[in-house]
Amino acid sequence: MKMIRPIAAPYSVQPEAQATTDDTRNNRDAIRLFALLISFQGSVVNSTVQFPSVRDFPAKFLFGAATSSYQIEGAVTADGRGESWWDVFARTPGNIRDGSTGDIACGHYERWAEDLDLMKSLGLQAYRFSIAWPRIFPNGRGQINAAGLDFYDRLVDGMLARGIVPYATLYHWDLPQTLALEGGWQVRSTAKAFADYTEAVVRRLGDRVARWATLNEPRCSAYVGHLEGRHAPGMQSLEATLRAAHHLLLGHGLAVQAARRVKPDVSIGIVLDVKPYTAASDRSEDEAAAIRGDGIFNRWFLDAIFRGQYPEDITSDYAAAMPTIEANDMATIAVPIDHLGINYYTRSVVRQAASAAYPQLEEVAVAGAHYSTMNWEDWPEGLRNMIVRIHQDYAPKAIYVAENGAAEPDVVDGDGHVHDDARVRYLSGHLHACVEALAAGAPLDAYLAWSFMDNFEWGRGYTQRFGLVHVDYATLRRTPKDSAIAFRDFLATR
Length: 494
What we know:
Distance between the termini: 13 Å
Helix content: 40-55%
Shape: globular
Number of helices: 16
Number of domains: 1
CATH superfamily: Glycosidases
CATH topology: TIM Barrel
Strand content: 5-15%
Structural class: alpha/beta
CATH architecture: Alpha-Beta Barrel
CATH class: Alpha Beta
Number of strands: 15
Strand order of the largest sheet: 3-4-5-6-7-9-12-13
């Protein structure tokens, strides 16, 4: 077992907004030098948190972190980028908890090289990022914006130069506003436009990106955006939700086909958010509520992708709200994929709520459990359970953890440290869960923490901090938290 060794001094990066080329180069050199210095510092904070050994994982297993374009890039009008529906949604009063937008975010568009240097210094072996569709096609389709592709070209080359394996996600929710005005994911034409966009990006970057994901969390895109109204486009309609969910999955299938036309040996899949639903009691009504929740959250998307059908119990409940499904749609959705990324954060303990709208359930708090500032329970066992269940029930060729993390009330103390003990425990527990899933025979081959750094957390704005690295949004200063150093020291055992 490996005891963590928290860092003895802060490692902060604060490049000037209008830095010259020489200033930027000097800043990078300083970062690299400081990274070397801190890597030899000993322990100054005692911790009883036990991480597994890296030797408990296969030799080729990769560890890293993830982000997404709108959440960190900023520069929403730079170099020809078009408007996304998240630009519009975030600027609409009342939509974002703290009234913020992603206009600046973490300034990653200008600071990408420094961020990659920081990743390298922390020992990250892989980095999952997303490509902003409006940077490539400002109007969603038609003329390619070369400057947008150039940015991601530099980013990918920068990863490779630092020994970091690129994991690219093609859609992490920033739909071009032009397509949103045409109906967004409620219309089939968006799925075709997504396939064309995919073809253009894979043609440019496919020789260097190790792993592609078509979509990130289509469930969240559909349900939170079209039923709950908390994300773009801010709708509250079951019919719109189911149309969007179907067309997102159709777009996934068409995109896989498009990518393989350009690069037949491309490694491509999808990323789904998953979580176990547990009945709050042994009452049959509560157990039925858990089955319904699981059907909507998990089986709806897993069954479609791996079995070419939606679960019958849920389609029966949805009845007249079901979207139009054309003859070849399900076969396209179920096109074989090379891997499945899963995003796991928590579980849902539920009981029946007979007076509530479908699916007639409500979540129940677990006494004595730790809950994050998102009000999500820390329950590592669920990660192990979901990985093993997906392996046994759906048999993807490979599985990787694409996101896993916790939001905590992080603050920089007077000495410049961020002591995020709860996140350290969360990471340790979920890495142990990965070891258990591997022991059960699951083809798990990577773990990517969410998130590399604090960022714009969608409808909650900047009120939630998920990062291994703290971001001061006033100055954009980056400060690795204790969890980042614990993760670094865990990786150093390899």
